[in-house]
Each structure stands twice: as structure tokens, then as C-alpha cells.
From TrEMBL:
Entry's Gene Ontology molecular function annotations: DNA binding
One Pfam family from the record: Response_reg
Source organism superkingdom: Bacteria
Lineage, top ranks: Bacteria, Pseudomonadati, Bacteroidota, Chitinophagia, Chitinophagales
The organism of origin for this protein: Chitinophaga eiseniae
Official protein name in the record: Response regulator transcription factor
């Protein structure tokens, strides 16, 4: 499900009221955000979702890993795949970022992130489903290096067609489906079909999974 930039329903999840208030004040001036919701914990977030509260982007404060937070993210990823989750923390390691990518998180920020970048990311992730910054790039390269160090997997994936390879390159460049269609001169539905074929071939569940596969196999 893609959302127009002017139709962002944002939920802020942070246990610190002063931070929620500051972020809400910042976002209230952003004309792309149509509605703003504030909750303190992941439990309140899930209550809002189960009650049918509409949202398509969540800004989630990641203080420290625990089973409940991970379970919350996993549930959102599985039951609400149209919701994009961005996480903010004081510090992220490549290992933590990769574990959160596997849970469907679409973007990562430290507390030092400029407000302009954060607003841009919210607008971008609502449309494209992924915000690709240096934190994500470094984490994916780290993961590729870990895989290379431990040796290649035994399973073989069939050779990719030129268009399939081009789509992987363009996804890495953060191109939208419409932009990819224009680049390789096919229809939008054809691009969606190629992406679905790639997911079936590689076992990837989303765009991040496809990018991980492409990095691991030196396609990009």
C-alpha cells in the first residue's frame, strides 16, 4: 500500500513526554502530516492498532532491546505490512540495525539527527517504504562482510535476467516503483512482477531482504 506524501498518519512512540511533545511540535508544522498520535509504550501502540486507529508511519524510540519491543515490531510487520516503522536511538550498532531490519523496520536515526532529515525521511518512507541513509548502508555492508567471512551458502539461486539485476541496482539507489519503470522502460505492473519474482527466487520478504541478497551475492 503506497501513500501520497500529503496523507501521512504518524504515531510517535516514546516513554519520555518531553520528547514526544518536542517531536509533536516539530511535526505539527509539517503540511505532509495529516494526523499525529502520541503514545508512551509499545503496549499503548498495540491497543491503538487493535482499536482500529489509522496510522501509516510509526516513529519508535528504541532505548534497549527487549522481547516485548521485538514482539511488537514483529506483529506490526506481519499484521500491518502497510505501516512503515522508523526507529530512533542514542546509538545503533550494525548488529542491532540488522536485527531490526529483519523485523521490518524501514529507517534508523540517532538522537543527533537533524530535524530536516527526519522530516524528509518520514515523507520518503511513507511513499517508498525504506529510508536508506548511512546507518542502513553501513549495517548492510557489515552483514555482507559477516556472511562472506563465514563462507557462502550452499543453496544456489537461478541466474538473474538483466532486468532483474537492474531492478536490484535501482532499489539500492532508493528508486520508487514508478522511477524504476521509467528507467528500464516497462510498466509499473511489470516492475511489481519482477520484484515479486525476485522475492520468490531469493526468499526475501521485502525490499531490505532483496538488497541484502544483492549485497551478499555481489550484484550491487
Amino acid at each position: 500500500m503506497q501513500t501520497a506524501p500529503g496523507d501521512i498518519l504518524l504515531c510517535i512512540v516514546d516513554e519520555h513526554k518531553i520528547i514526544r511533545n518536542a517531536l509533536a511540535s516539530l511535526f505539527s508544522k509539517h503540511h505532509h502530516i495529516r494526523e499525529l498520535i502520541e503514545v508512551e509504550t509499545e503496549h499503548e501502540l498495540m491497543e491503538q492498532l487493535y482499536k482500529g486507529k489509522q496510522m501509516n508511519v510509526i516513529l519508535f524510540h528504541w532505548s534497549k532491546p527487549d522481547k516485548e519491543k521485538k514482539a511488537c515490531l514483529r506483529t506490526i510487520h506481519q499484521q500491518y505490512p502497510f505501516i512503515r516503522v522508523l526507529t530512533m536511538s542514542q546509538h545503533f550498532t550494525p548488529e542491532v540495525i540488522n536485527s531490526l531490519l529483519d523485523l521490518g523496520v524501514c529507517g534508523f536515526f540517532t538522537k543527533n539527527t537533524d530535524s530536516t532529515e527526519l522530516l524528509e525521511a518520514i515523507s520518503q518512507v511513507a511513499v517508498r517504504g525504506l529510508y536508506h541513509n548511512k546507518l542502513v548502508a553501513d549495517a548492510l555492508y557489515w552483514r555482507a562482510a559477516q556472511i562472506a567471512h563465514h563462507g557462502p551458502e550452499t543453496g544456489k539461486t537461478p541466474p538473474l535476467t538483466p532486468n532483474q539485476e537492474k531492478v536490484l541496482h535501482l532499489l539500492w539507489q532508493e528508486k520508487s516503483t514508478q522511477e524504476i519503470a521509467a528507467e528500464i522502460f516497462v510498466s509499473i505492473s511489470a516492475v511489481e512482477k519482477i520484484k515479486q519474482q525476485l522475492k520468490e527466487m531469493t526468499g526475501a520478504k521485502n525490499t531490505i531482504g532483496l538488497i541484502k541478497y544483492a549485497l551478499k551475492n555481489s550484484i550491487i
